[in-house]
Amino acid sequence: MSVKFVPRPSQERGHADHDWLKTFHTFSFAMYQDLEHMHYGPLRVINEDRVAPHTGFGTHGHREFEIFSYIVSGELEHGDSMGNREVLKRGDLQMTSAGTGIRHSEKAHGQKEVHFLQIWSLPSQSGLKPQYFTRHFPDAEKTDKWAKIVAPVGSDGVVEKREAVGPAPVHSGLSLFASLISPSTTLKHTLVQRKAYFHVIQTSGYNPGKPSGAQVKLSAGGEELVLREGDGVYIMGEAGATLEVKNEGEKVAEVILFDLE
């Protein structure tokens, strides 16, 4: 099956260093605006954020977005206008369906920096009632296999409860998978939709220059691409096409994969 890769190199992402916040933007966000990278299907934001201890995003509002946070390291303190208050740790995923409007804050908790991915998608319908969900996926569930951590409402295994086992529900045509791939290990994924987006998380440390750290090779339909930490790739193909992801480096690669309508 025909598949096309369009690389999104780490060093070409939007980037800002505010001292308390070091961030990369895959898509246009805040002061970074690029008409070639506005969204991809329903996927609107992938920000790779590092927030310094005792700092964070003060209370602010959102509406008509599905907003989720994937915790890589450290602890993230969340509070919102729905009354939710908690500290999220590695392996935790929180999903806020902002709907008609919410206000929330996100801050580093404790003495360490928090590194997390802030992801937004466009909802498939407007005017939804705001909701909040949390899920936990320990490393063992992601080691050398795909863990489905977000999936559309109504999908198999999706439970619309604040806390539950299985993927967090999202009101978008989007499924999100995560994995920790050991060196020399290959994983496969069969596309359910025609589009996908793949990203290698920058786990070895903040690096606004040339990517280093983990190295993976992505293959599909005769296409091949080598990626390092912070790199991503737009994938255009056909439902049923098979992607292969091989860790060619010497350290574990933490990766995420969006299957998009």
TrEMBL record:
Among the Pfam families in the record, one is Pirin
Q: Which cofactor does it need?
A: Fe cation
For Fe cation, which residues are the binding ones? 60, 62, 104, 106
Start and end residues of each Pirin N-terminal domain:
12-120
The Gene Ontology terms for molecular function here are: metal ion binding
Q: Does the keyword Metal-binding apply?
A: yes
How is the cofactor bound, as the UniProt entry phrases it? Binds 1 Fe cation per subunit.
> What keywords is this UniProt entry annotated with?
Iron, Metal-binding
Entry's SUPFAM superfamilies? RmlC-like cupins
Q: Which InterPro entries match?
A: Pirin, Pirin_N_dom, RmlC-like_jellyroll, RmlC_Cupin_sf
Q: Which family does the similarity line name? A: Belongs to the pirin family.
Stated name of the protein: Pirin N-terminal domain-containing protein
